[in-house]
Each structure stands twice: as structure tokens, then as C-alpha cells.
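Need residues for this backbone.
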């Protein structure tokens, strides 16, 4: 059965085009994909991310349990900070990419992708077996997640926090940090994170209070150019920013190293005795870290007007297949098509001219660094 966001009625009232996404009915767009994308790059966009999963891990052993379950060193995370990490299978394949927040000394919040909430919950449950010092609770049903992204996001969100000390704390938040604040009368966990390449905030609030907050953000942001934005704009924004999407750049057959994200794998983790800390996938990932890669994730700049799409073959100028496109679309910001693709290492160097087979026609592309877009600081 398709699930509905706590904000479903708000999307319907705004005339959103709805689509099925990971078992949820979510807004694809409210009007123009390009207009929503551009608003996030120039002002602000408002996103419903309530389909994401929120799993809380608490107890004196929570940090150690996460260190053994995930590839990152989460016990070293300061209270109030967040970290991008992954949960892998024993063979090193990625089960999901995650953001983990340390809320208190013995309390963590694990945010999972909508399509993988059950996978992550079940894997963590299995990896916590026999540990009475760590308790897992799925808070996804009770939690709504609203994101405000764009160069004016701080102005929009900060203006909805009436208490001066809290408002200052929100405005001074570092990237990948979080603080509790009362936003338009609603108790929220305010995180400075995002998936668009812009500055922005994600607001975790009780599901039943989300509609009131959504309307308040829309009203406060509209004079500044904020618009509601759907999944289509979110995808084109994250693609420009070179951010991976599970199911495209990441999956069970892909290791973090394949995706150029080996930095999130902390092989230097140690236990209390100073010995290498065992975590699920460690042996496979250590071997992969020192192996010659079979494929490399690269950025491709389209040199013609036709955009590459997921699953299209990447070929040499002579027509030999050397890779596969994982994500591709026209870039509203840059004015030309962009794509990410896995290719063989011998054609992965910056400046290499290749082509993509777009429905039987070879469209010229060039290997370029990721990300395609980087905001001005």
C-alpha cells in the first residue's frame, strides 16, 4: 500500500504532481522543474523529506555499537554534530548511505533513505543482537522532515525562531551540525545539512505538527522567493552537486571506494585495547582499498544538447563500451547536460573525450571533475 506523507494534503492543495517513490506518494513538482531548481540556487526551496527514515540508537554502548555496525567512527562524533557514513554488507557492498547525528552522549539519530529504512533497521537489529547496552527505536512514523535549501535558507529559518538565543544558535550552526530550537512554536531538531549543494536546513518535527510548520515556512519565505520544490528539482540539484543517489551511484554491488567515497571508511578505528576494531565489511573494504579499481565514478559534461540518462552505455570515440551512466540530466544552472558514470580506469582521466549512446546515437561527452557545481562561500 502506498504511504502518504504527513504533508500530503498540503501538496494536494498546492496542485503538486504526485508520484510513487519508494512506496510513498510524494510531490514530483508543483509547477516548473526548472523554476523550482533555479529558486533553490538563487533564493530558497522547501522540500518534504518525510519519506526518509529516522532510527534512534541509545544507551551506554550506542557509540561502540555504531562503530561496529557502520563504516564510520561515530563514537568520536561530538554531541550536536553529524556525519555522512554508510552501512555495508560483509562483502563491502553498500546497503545504504546514511547521516548520523549525535544528539546526546548516549543517543544517536540515524537517517536512512526511504527505500532502505527496513533494510537498515533490520541490519542494525541483527548487529545489535546480544547487546543490552544499546537500544534501537524506529521513530520514522512519528517524525516528519522538512528541508529549506538555498542561499536565503538561513534568513527564512532564522526568522521563524523567536527566542533570541535559539535564533543565534541556528544562524551560527556549522555545516553538519544540529541544535534543538522552537521554530514557529514547534519543538524541532534543526540540522544544517542538505542534498542540493546549497546552504540549508533540515527540520525534524513531530509528524502531526508538520503541516503548520510547512505553511509557516511558505508564508515567511514567499516574499524572499522561496517556493515548494519536488523530487525532480531535488534530483537535478543533487546531480549538479555530484552527490550520489542510492540505486544509481550506490548499491549492493558497489563499495564506497568504487564511488570515490573511500574516505568515509575508517580503517583506523580501534577498540579500548588499541587493536583494530572489527566492523561489518572491514576485511572486504580493506582489501578493496588497496586493490586496482575495476571501475571509477566520473563526471561527464555533455557537448551536445541531448542528455545522457541512467543505464545508457558510455563508449569510446571508436564505439567500444567502457562504462554505464548512473545519473544524467540537463543542468539548468550550467546550461548543458551533465552525467555521472562508472567507466574503466583507462578512460577516467579529466579531459578524456568519450560518447554516450543515446537511443542509438553517440552523443559527445568529456570527463570532468565532480562536482559540476560548487556554490560560492
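Answer:
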Amino acid at each position: 500500500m502506498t504511504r502518504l506523507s504527513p504533508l500530503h494534503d498540503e501538496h494536494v492543495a498546492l496542485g503538486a504532481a504526485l508520484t510513487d517513490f519508494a512506496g510513498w506518494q510524494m510531490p514530483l513538482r508543483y509547477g516548473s522543474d526548472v523554476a523550482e531548481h533555479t529558486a533553490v540556487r538563487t533564493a530558497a526551496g522547501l522540500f518534504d523529506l518525510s519519506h526518509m527514515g529516522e532510527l534512534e540508537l541509545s544507551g551506554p554502548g550506542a557509540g561502540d555499537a555504531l562503530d561496529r555496525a557502520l563504516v564510520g567512527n561515530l563514537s568520536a562524533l561530538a554531541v550536536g554534530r553529524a556525519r555522512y557514513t554508510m552501512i555495508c554488507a560483509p562483502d563491502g557492498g553498500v546497503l545504504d548511505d546514511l547521516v548520523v547525528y549525535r544528539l546526546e552522549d548516549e543517543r544517536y539519530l540515524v537517517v536512512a533513505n526511504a527505500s532502505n529504512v527496513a533494510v537498515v533497521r533490520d541490519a542494525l537489529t541483527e548487529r545489535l543482537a546480544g547487546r543490552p547496552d544499546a537500544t534501537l527505536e524506529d521513530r520514522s512514523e512519528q517524525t516528519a522532515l522538512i528541508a529549506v535549501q538555498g542561499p536565503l535558507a538561513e534568513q527564512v529559518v532564522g526568522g521563524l525562531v523567536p527566542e533570541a538565543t535559539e535564533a543565534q544558535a541556528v544562524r551560527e550552526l556549522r555545516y553538519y551540525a544540529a541544535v534543538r530550537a522552537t521554530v514557529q512554536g514547534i519543538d524541532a531538531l534543526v540540522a544544517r545539512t542538505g542534498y542540493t549543494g546549497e546552504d540549508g536546513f533540515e527540520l525534524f518535527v513531530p509528524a502531526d505538527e508538520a503541516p503548520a510548520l510547512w505553511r509557516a515556512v511558505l508564508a515567511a519565505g514567499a516574499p524572499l522567493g522561496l517556493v515548494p520544490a519536488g523530487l525532480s528539482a531535488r534530483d537535478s540539484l543533487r546531480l549538479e552537486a555530484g552527490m550520489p543517489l542510492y540505486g544509481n551511484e550506490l548499491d549492493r554491488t558497489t563499495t564506497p571506494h568504487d564511488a570515490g567515497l573511500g574516505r568515509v571508511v575508517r580503517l583506523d578505528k580501534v577498540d579500548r585495547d588499541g587493536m583494530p576494531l572489527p566492523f561489518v565489511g572491514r576485511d572486504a573494504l580493506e582489501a578493496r582499498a588497496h586493490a586496482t579499481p575495476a571501475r571509477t565514478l566520473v563526471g561527464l559534461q555533455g557537448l551536445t544538447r541531448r542528455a545522457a540518462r541512467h543505464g545508457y552505455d558510455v563508449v569510446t570515440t571508436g564505439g567500444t563500451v567502457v562504462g554505464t551512466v548512473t545519473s544524467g540530466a540537463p543542468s539548468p544552472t550550467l546550461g548543458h547536460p551533465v552525467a555521472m558514470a562508472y567507466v574503466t580506469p583507462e578512460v577516467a582521466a579529466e579531459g578524456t573525450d568519450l560518447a554516450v549512446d543515446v537511443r542509438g546515437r553517440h552523443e559527445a561527452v568529456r570527463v570532468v571533475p565532480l562536482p559540476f557545481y560548487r556554490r560560492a562561500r
